[in-house]
Each structure stands twice: as C-alpha cells, then as structure tokens.
Specification:
Blueprint (H helix, E strand, L loop, with lengths): L9 H4 L2 H9 L1 H18 L6 E5 L5 H8 L9 E6 L2 H9 L5 E4 L13 E7 L15 H15 E11 L4 H13 L2 E8 L7 E8 L18 E4 L2 H7 L9 H13 L20
Parallel strand pairs: 1-2, 1-4, 2-3, 4-5
Antiparallel strand pairs: 5-7, 6-7, 6-8
Helix pairs in contact: 3-4, 6-7
Length: 278
C-alpha cells in the first residue's frame, strides 16, 4: 500500500471528501489526541502559551491545545497553518478557537521573528520530503521550513514534530535540515520496532548547550537519539577558502541549498579547472 504523500501533493490529496473522512474517523481522532498530548508533554509548558500548529488540518490538535486545564499549564492560544483549503474549511465549520492560515510550509513560516513560545506538528513534515517537480528539491523545502520555524520561535522556544519517515534516509534528511537551521535536535521514538512506532523530533531554538542534553526535555528518557553537529562545526573553525576552489564551491552550493535553491549535484569534477580552449 503506497503512502499518501507518494500519491498526490497534500493540497490535492486532502480534498473535501478525504478531509471529512479524516476528521470524522474515531480511530484517527484517538491517535491524534494521543500524539498531541505526547507532544505537549515533551514541550513541558508550565503556563498558557502562544503555539503554532504546523499542518493543523481540521483543528483536531488545536482543540486539545485550547482545552488544557490551568492545572496543566493551559489553556493555550494557537495559530494553525495548513496547505489544504478543504481541511481549513472543515476547521472553520467546527468553529475552532485558533486563527487559521492557508500556507505551504515548504515555502517557509511567514510570521515575525519570535512570534511564538512553542510549536507542534502532527503527521505533517514528512510531506516535505517529496518534491512535486524538478524545479523544487526536498532539501530546499525542508530548509525553508526549518529556517522559518527557527526564526518564528522566541529564544529558548521549543517545537515538537511527530512524523512518519519512509526510511532512514528521510529521517536523517529531516533532522539534518533542522540542525542546519540552528536547532538543537533530539529524536524520541515511542514503541520502537513495532507497527505502533511513533517518532518525535524535539527541537530547541537557541539557548542550548553544545554538549550533553541539548533539548532539555529528553533527559533520562529511553530510546532517545540526540543529534548535535554544532560543536563539530565550531571545532573546524573559520578557515579561508580559495575562491573558485572545490571547498569554496561546495560551501556556496550548501548556502544556496539552504535558501531553497535547486543546485546541481556535486561530482569528482566539481571545482576542476578546465583547459583553455583555442
């Protein structure tokens, strides 16, 4: 059985019929509720906060954010963004409390810097690993998303993204894009090696340490895989690169890719000087 993200782009896959089916399914409602509460547990918010719900759909997660009692640090105020107009239309019909924005997260997160205290995403960011055309790269979409998310969070703000990677390549691609954007990133896996396995990407924007537990929320938890490449990059230090050399070209291509541009693949010929033509 093919994965939904491999059949159609999300704005086409979640049409009126599919959106209503998703929202009214009791099974999906139960799973969505469990994952949202788990994400809130990892966010560890102790007071009402402004939360960005990424890929909010019809507002199933947002309803939970609004219903958290004061004894558990709520209720929270939330803003949801989603690429599916059909999903957002159902959210409006359900009269959810949050503000809604129709937007493609692969084009960035269009909010002022430091707008949010935290962010959650349930079953959404794996869609970014699929490019709909040769003009768009998965790496570019992930880069624009995580750079925008990093900017939209206040210093020390946290984000928890539950996602379903197709394979280890996608898992690494997503976590690497988050780290390149500046996040401290930890991956927590619930029920590993079972069909009910759930992955949570736990992110911290700024204020993290280069050593030890960079997320501040996964300490002591089993099954946690923490990635921290910032120390490695700092140890390399700033080095002068010869303009036009291979290292200079590769660095330029990496910067272009982080901005979401499509760049040609590198090869053994990258940076080689061509012989003069007569």
């Amino acid at each position: 059985m093919s994965r939904p993200e491999e059949t159609l782009p999300p704005d086409l896959f979640y049409n009126d019929s599919e959106s209503r089916k998703y929202t009214t399914s009791s099974r999906i409602q139960t799973i969505q509720s469990e994952m949202t509460h788990r994400a809130l547990e990892l966010l560890a918010l102790d007071s009402p906060s402004l939360i960005l719900d990424i890929g909010c759909g019809s507002g199933l997660s947002g309803e939970i954010l609004s219903s958290i009692p004061p004894s558990q640090g709520g209720p929270h105020i939330w803003v949801g963004m989603d690429i599916s107009a059909s999903m957002l239309d159902i959210a409006l019909q359900r009269d959810v409390d949050g503000d809604l924005l129709l937007a493609d997260i692969g084009q960035g997160v269009p909010f002022r810097p430091g707008s949010f205290d935290a962010a959650i995403s349930i079953s959404a960011i794996q869609w970014l690993c699929n490019a709909e055309s040769s003009e768009v790269s998965a790496q570019g979409r992930l880069s624009r998303f995580f750079n925008g998310l990093y900017a939209s969070l206040g210093r020390g703000g946290r984000a928890v993204c539950q996602f379903y990677p197709k394979n280890e390549v996608q898992r690494t691609m997503i976590s690497s894009a988050a780290i390149k954007a500046g996040f401290g990133a930890g991956i927590l896996e619930d029920d590993p090696e079972t069909k009910n396995s759930k992955l949570y990407l736990v992110l911290t924007a700024g204020g993290g340490s280069a050593s030890g537990d960079i997320t501040g929320v996964v300490k002591g938890m089993d099954g946690v895989d923490v990635h921290d490449q910032r120390k490695k990059h700092r140890e390399k230090g700033r080095r002068e690169l010869k303009k036009g050399g291979k290292a200079w070209i590769l660095e330029r291509k990496e910067k272009m890719e982080r901005k979401g541009m499509v760049v040609k693949n590198s090869s053994r010929y990258t940076g080689r000087k061509r012989r003069p033509a007569f």
